[in-house]
Amino acid sequence: MLKNGLLLLFLLLAACQKAAEPAPVTLGDDASNGAAKPVASQPLADMAPGDYLKTTYWPNAELDAGTAWISCGYDYLQDGDGEKLDALTFFAVVDALTPCQPQGVVRLRYDGKINAGFTALVQRVAAVADRMEIPVRILDIKSSGGHVEEAIRAGDSMAEQRWAIWVRDGSYCHSSCVLILAGGDTRSITGDVGIHRLFRDQSKATSRAELSAELRDVSGQVRDYLVRNGADVRIADLMMTVANRRLRLLSEAELREYGLSGSNAVQDDLDRIRLTRRCGEDFARRRDAWLRAFENECLEPGKAFEVLDECGRALEPRFGFPDAKCPSDNPTADRRGLPTGTAAHVMLMPPLKLEGGSQSADVVKK
User: Fold this and answer.
1) DSSP state of 76
2) Cα(331)–Cα(105) distance, rounded to whole angstroms?
3) Is the alpha carbon torsion for 215, 220, 225, 230 positive or negative?
4) Are 74 and 107 within 8 A, CB to CB?
5) Which carries the bigger pLDDT value, residue 283 or residue 361?
6) Phi, psi of 361, deg, nearest 5
7) Do 47 and 143 reside in the same domain of the chain?
8) C-alpha 249 chain-centroid distance
9) Which range is the signal sequence, renumbered to this chain (predicted)?
10) Could you tell me if residue 6 is inside a domain?
11) Residue 10 lies in a domain
């Protein structure tokens, strides 16, 4: 009797395991390229990046939805995208970033979908940059979107790792890629940035109410993410209202109004609080004035870092710098320590069209 009972229990457990549904896959669509294709990688949330990134043994991760290149300079017209990064292992990333150590700059070009592989990419490049003391990290992105949850994970990670983000002319950042912009310290945009409605893969909804309920949780996650990264929650509203068969392109004015271009307001506030604690209110006020002058007088498209540095140093005496009270916090105390948005050459942003262009679509995982 006991033997039969154990056998029955075993069969029931086996049946449950067999019936278990695979984890849902979040898609990123580009309607201009035909039918939607799955973004196949699974989340890497269980990897505890804060722990493994301090070691040399990194769990397996793949760039299965895009291509990445590493460059050690700002000038993509002259230098191109850089050297292709073929693997995300510790030693592969170290080898790719080693040439960038003398310059103190790494530009990561990424062309593809937002998924777990992308999250691992930005985390691992930043981790090695930290070890090599490479202070300037630029994400040069072209993406039609992808996993909403992974965009949030990647954006939060980038917010802690001090990334500048470019969407250059000829590139675009659509759908969940817009969330990546919120995580950057500075955002320099000349390409298209567009938003539309999120949708869930393998949805079971049969009514508007059921579909709304499915998306309610992720909409809340998006709102919380935008708030903590200094972006306007109206972006989340657009992600729930613009039909996913269309694409709402944001103008230059809207990008600034929504907190998606230029300096990140939250990071600016945090930096100023820390500076005031160390050096006092008067020092912080004068440094703010220097930065405004730097942005108005020094930043022009295509200027090399050395020219920016020279221009910044020439402005210092006007605002009482160098200041012996806090020598390490003077605006150009370290030639690689200019504000993130000044260390990267910042492009001027021409007006963007409000409608049109290629379409993308994102779905939200369960």
Assistant:
1) H
2) 18
3) positive
4) yes
5) 283
6) -150, 145
7) yes
8) 19
9) 1-19
10) no
11) no
